Amino acid sequence: MHHRHILRDVFWLSLPVTVILVYLIGIAISDFHKAEVENFHGYPARSLRIGGLQSMFLRATQSLGDVSHNRFLSSKGRGEPDVVPNIDLRVKGVDLDALDARFPKSSKKWRDAWMHDSPSKRQRVSVHYRGQLLTNYFFHQKSWKIKTKKRELWNGYRLINLTPLSRRLESHLSLLVAREVGLPAPRARVVRLFVNMRDEGLYLQEEQIDESMIRRAGRMPGDVFYGELFIPEEPKRSSNELFWNPYVWEKRARNNRYSEQYRPHLEDLLDQVCSEDPGSWDRLYNRLEVDEYALYFALLSFQGDHHVDHAHNHKLYFDPLLGRFEGIVWNPLLYLPYGEGVETVANRMFKKLARDPRFLDRVHRLMHDRFLKSDMTLLQLRELDRIRSACAPLALDPKAFVARTRAMERRLGQRGDTVRNQAAVADLHYEVARSPSGAITVQLHARATASLRLRGLTLNGPASGVRLFEDRDFDGVVGEADRELKVDATGDRLEVLDDDALLYVGRDFSAGYDRPHKDGIESYSVARDYTRLASLASPLLLVGAGATAAITGVDAERTVGEGAVTVRSGAPDGFVATETVHPWRLPAPAPARTYRFAGEHTLREDLIVRPQDKLLVEPDTTLRLAPGVSIVVKSRAEIRGLTIRRLVPNRPWGVFVIQGKSASSSRLERCDFRGGSDDTIDHVYYSGMLSVHYADKVSVVDSVFAKNVLGDDTVRFAKCHDLLILRVTVSDANGDAIDCDISTGKISHVRVISPRNDGIDLMTANVDLSDVLIEGAGDKGISVGESANPLVERVRLIRCVTGLGIKDGSDPLLRNCEIKDCRTAIASYDKNWRYPGGGRGRLVDCVLSGNRRDVELDRWSTLVLERCSTRRAYALPVGLPAGAFREIDPREGDDQ
User: Which of 24, 88, 642, 735 has fewest C-beta within 10 Å?
Assistant: First the structure.
């Protein structure tokens, strides 16, 4: 009897464990059958087994109460197009187990996988879980990172980030707006993820922020810095020092060098962010690309974003052509609270910039013109509606998905109302008193999103004889620092004629709202700082016989937006600016200077011509530059007959630079530059003896450039539109004779003689060439790369190592050209994996003669010769696809 009781107890005690084991085994067999027998199209089941006990347990618990996880990819209709693209990922069960074990450390190791586009098309990839928080690993819908091989991109991506759409829906809507207004932001789209045939639900596929994204955004490759909460390599580093310590930032692009040499420009930026001296503002703007950064700030304010906070989640791109930073939009979240005039200042850089009304003027002008006028909220609502219609039937829980999109729709509407209400505010209060000096002081307290413009005062008596001053030193006395405004006195009306008589507005940093303003309840959030619109006083002084201590009215108008300004007498009854720095208290900009040269001059130090300055060069002027001395011109210049030579015959001078939008429409004519080199000025490397960066409609005509040393280029245009190089000779170039990066324009009637490297190098440039002679190039006569698409007509390439190089997705069209006596006439190949495919050139009515080899292709390239004369000395790879090389109506050369 005693033994029977023991057996009974053992049976009942072991029954739950037995049931659980049977349940787990049943789930595993069911998964195995569904995923690998019914739908696996004959792939070896053992290579994609379900996994071990841990995977069995996870899948079994997921299936409890949620049958949606039992959905598998059907083999039926797999070739049909889907509204939402599928990513069909196959990972070995043992690798899935390894990813789940000892996370998060184990998830950082790449695992082999396959990605399927159709039953007959698959691609080998590497995968791991992405993210650094435990939430990325605990839950069923994990975030993934997928990496392809360099020359086997997936729809243009090499690195693919996949995050459950439920976590990234608001970011997707913000990234849509960022790309619409031209900010650098990753591409994103909604996809449906299957892992080993199991439906994992809807994910957001995002582009990796790296050099590929920067190139695709139309920027030159430059450093991309990540400010993160966690530094995996050195976890003891605290990101609380993000805007103090440059070593907390990681560099993730442009050769990925983690050395000291890339730090100085980041250190400069952080120094200006943290510095409180008055001159730090101008130095900060010199390190930021202000227009782009103001647009970035406007987007985040429009979005109400507080994810880019003081401690982490910040990304910066350093433009090597300008030596300045831009912000990269990547993970914005909707946190804009209710209230009047609420903005984010969640990190030190934003907080400093929000203290300057000049910057906020620019931000809100962009906010009004780019976001409110274009109704970006409507754009987001349309995208949200499209996602709801297309994706709801595919969601694992359709009801929850629809509820989430409805909630997001309400948030978008509420946020749009908040931004519009903020833009509607325009208040002005005025107080009048008599100063000890006898002048009448008028305190004008402006409150709006952007500065107001003063239009006039109405006095209680005649306005004739009254003078009006801006009290720029805030001392109540007319002095040298104060500016007199131009006025027109008519009766009792004092009309202000200056369009720049601005009444600046400020921000209150004392608290932030997380409840509606109408409730009258304020609370301060340490993690999410906000500002509010606040009144800022601009003092004026009235002097003269007609000045009285009574003013009956003030007229002002908006500088941004439409609508009347509400004007009241007395002190403001709302918020007062707490930390705003009035622009009048900052150092005045240095006065403009004029640099005039005539005859012969010697320069022994660099000459920097600022945007407000003028450079006047009389015809037939000669400048002798000391070793390493450079000239940087940032204003529009018309220079004719300038000669530059070395001061020391055996030591080169630096560079002549035309820099920035303010230098657009500059013209160099009849210039002769010889003996220069390269230079680095203010963190910008100028590779050409003549370097033109970010300046449009620049013309170089009837000029000679020769015998430079050290630099990669002799003449370089970078990020320039509508350039013109006409009747120019470049000889004995140290590297490339003429280099055009991300530019458009024309090069015509140009001679390039004996360059050490390329004659003309085009990178992502649509610069058309006509009537050009390039002779004796040490590498390529014309190098067409990185998706350049020029029209080339009547060009002669003679005795070059390679006459024409076509690479990386470029597609030039050549007409009536001659390539003669080169080692290789045309070489078309794939060099940079970021531009998939080799060259895709087309030559029409061209002559290839005397070359050792007329055509050399790799297996990724295509070439069409139409009515061209050649010796048919071709080097074509084995396995070249049919039609990759075509001759249409070929003409044989005379010496065949």
Answer: 24
